[in-house]
Write a structure and sequence with these properties.
The protein has ten helices and no strands. The chain has helices at residues 2-14, 18-29, 38-47, 52-76, 78-88, 92-105, 107-114, 120-129, 134-169, 171-191. α2 packs antiparallel against α3 and α2 packs parallel to α4 (52-76). This is Cytochrome B.
């Protein structure tokens, strides 16, 4: 099953419209969707290494735009939509903690958490709810999201063939590590 999913992602990453799919996933992940854009970004960069920086910039920009939607959900629609998303992730305690951290550390908290595997949507909604200045939010999001995706791009730039070889030979191990990272990011809300 994992092998067929990997093959499907490889095929999708080679399509002409792959960049649109990746952009949609990246946008949605920053505001409400649970799937990280890495599942499209990595195979696309491995499939077409000469377009690595183009794909990375598009992914980061789409994430930034999605983050602005998350901010708006927290700022304007928290009671109707934002709370529903927080409840869906069962992150009420983390949301409260994030509000306190925004009050204490402001933009630095957004930058530091924005490069981690913690779902960015929870940060964007909290920033909107906490009424973090929009300009500050956008600037911090630029730093956080571009840093996060550029770290992946740099690794792929220097180690792309090795990464592809590891993925293809040790697919189960790679899937397990990715699952641990995603679940760890979600569980970190319980303990933050």
């Amino acid at each position: 099953m994992l092998r067929s999913l990997y093959t499907r992602l490889q095929r999708l990453s080679a399509r002409d419209d792959a960049v649109w799919w990746m952009s949609a996933i990246s946008f949605a992940e920053s505001s409400f969707f649970p799937l990280p854009p890495d599942v499209m970004l990595v195979p696309m960069c491995l499939e077409k290494p000469k377009r690595l920086w183009f794909y990375t910039n598009i992914c980061a920009f789409a994430s930034l735009l999605g983050g602005m939607l998350g901010y708006a959900l927290g700022f304007y629609l928290f009671e109707s939509v934002g709370r529903m998303i927080i409840d869906f992730y069962n992150a009420q305690e983390s949301f409260q903690h994030f509000q306190e951290m925004f009050s204490e550390f402001g933009p630095w908290f957004l930058i530091l958490k924005g490069v981690t595997p913690i779902p960015y949507k929870l940060l964007t909604i909290t920033a909107g709810f906490a009424h973090l200045d929009l300009t500050v939010f956008i600037l911090c999001s630029i730093v956080a999201r571009f840093s996060r995706f550029y770290m992946i791009a740099i690794l792929l730039h220097f180690y792309g063939p090795q990464v592809q070889h590891i993925i293809e030979k040790r697919l189960m191990l790679v899937a397990t590590v990715l699952l641990v990272v995603v679940v760890g990011g979600l569980l970190s809300f319980k303990f933050v």
